[in-house]
Amino acid sequence: MSLDVQGTDYLKLPVGTTGQRPSVPASGMIRQNSTTGNPEWYDATTSSWLQFSQPAGYTVNYLVVAGGGGGANLSGGGGAGGYLASTTSLSSGTAYSITVGAGGAGGTASGTVPFNGVSGSNSSFGAIATSIGGGYGGSQAAGASGGSGGGGGDWAAGGYIGGAGTSGQGFAGGAAAGNDSGGGGGGGAGAVGGTGTSAQAGNGGVGVSNSISGSAVFYAGGGGSGPWRGTFPACLPGSGGNGGGGGGGPTAGSNGVAGTANTGGGGGGGSRNTTAQVVGGGAGGSGIVIISYLGSQRGTGGTVTSSGGYTIHTFTSSSTYNA
User: Fold this and answer.
1) Phi and psi at residue 18, in whole multiples of 5°?
2) Up-side HSE of residue 302: CA atoms within 13 Å toward CB?
3) 179 class by beta-carbon count within 10 Å (0-12 exposed, 13-18 middle, 19+ buried)
4) Spatial separation of the C-alpha atoms in residues 10 and 25, rounded to whole Å
5) Domains in the chain: how many in total?
6) Angle made by CA atoms 26, 29, 30, in degrees to the nearest 5
7) Quick one: which of 101, 226, 251, 256 could link to 268 by a disulfide (CB 3.0–4.6 Å)?
8) Is the pLDDT of residue 130 over 80?
9) SS3 string of 258-281?
């Protein structure tokens, strides 16, 4: 049956407060809400009353972590990828581009020339948030700036400073000691990278714990440094920061340890031995993007799970979130 209402007068809607909404609403119900002063309709897809004057939308939590920087082939640890976590309102039916940044490569072990690591790549959630890739670790050079800064490289003539972090995303890398000692650790999302000494290469800065996935996980730890030419155990390698940071080369003449994938952890710096063997730096860990919201699934994209009443979309590679 169809109802055709014509004329130039009006059609009066039922009027009631928010508390007087139907106890068992059905899709397409229309009423005038006297509490808000706006007409509203019931959307069964989202299980919510929506105002005519506003687009359908909802609030989400998000975590955006960039790729970590690679460790140098000689000492400096890679900086963690930039870390951003907050809330935002999305418009239903809108597609949001997701970019998950790759970790930067570690400094090469080929040849005798020192090689820095490679900075990590940015991660982003549409135009809402962009995290900056972690800075590379320096090899006889300063660490690079990034989401968190890379650690400074060491050598006989002196130590170099760490790179700067990005405000609100991460911290600076540590400085090297100089005189063939410990390099600087990469900065993390929660703390600066450790400064190298004659007995201990710099540790990576700690990351930040976040429970958006349903359990507490640390992200964006800095990479530990390796000794430039220390003899173990005279100068020990630095450990990676909690949050996926790789440690410095664990033995004399060993490569740095890679950062953990999908944490944004920085790569560890290589540990050179007394015979001037050139080693490789550890690669930075790739980034991650996570979106969560209270209630049943509303959007699509990524790996979808649920925990504690929240729907969680986890992206470990670049894709699209359809709200």
Assistant:
1) -60, -40
2) 31
3) middle
4) 24
5) 2
6) 160
7) 256
8) yes
9) CCCCCCCCCCCCCECCCCCCCCCC
Examine the domain organization and report whether 26 and 118 are in the same domain. Answer: no
DSSP 18-80: GGGS-SS--TT-EEEETTTTEEEEEETTTTEEEETTS--EEEEEEEEEPPPPPPPSSBPPPPP
Looking at residue 20, its pLDDT comes to: 87
CA–CA distance, 71 with 256 (Å, rounded to integer): 7
Query: How much is the mean pLDDT over the chain?
Result: 90
Q: Which residue range(s) make up the domain with 199? A: 55-323
Q: What is the mean pLDDT of residues 271-280?
A: 77
Q: What is the C-alpha separation between 267 and 295, in angstroms, rounded?
A: 38
pLDDT digits (tens, 9 = 90+) for 7-66: 777 777 788 887 888 888 888 888 887 766 678 777 775 567 776 655 568 999 999 999
Digit-coded pLDDT (tens) for 136-166: 999 989 999 999 999 999 987 789 999 999 9
Tokens of 188: 């993390």
263 domain-assigned: yes
For residue 16, count CB atoms less than 10 angstroms from its CB and return exposed for 0-12, middle for 13-18, buried for 19 or more: middle
Q: Is residue 9 part of a domain?
A: no
Q: Between β-strands 15-16 and 30-33, what pairing exists: parallel, antiparallel or unpaired? A: parallel
Q: In what order do the strands lie in the sheet with 288-294?
A: 83-91, 57-65, 288-294, 310-315, 303-307
On whether both 61 and 43 belong to a single domain, the answer is no
- Which residue carries 């650790």 as its tokens? 185
Q: Which residues pair with 217 in a beta bridge?
A: 210
Query: Do 148 and 291 fall within a single domain?
Result: yes
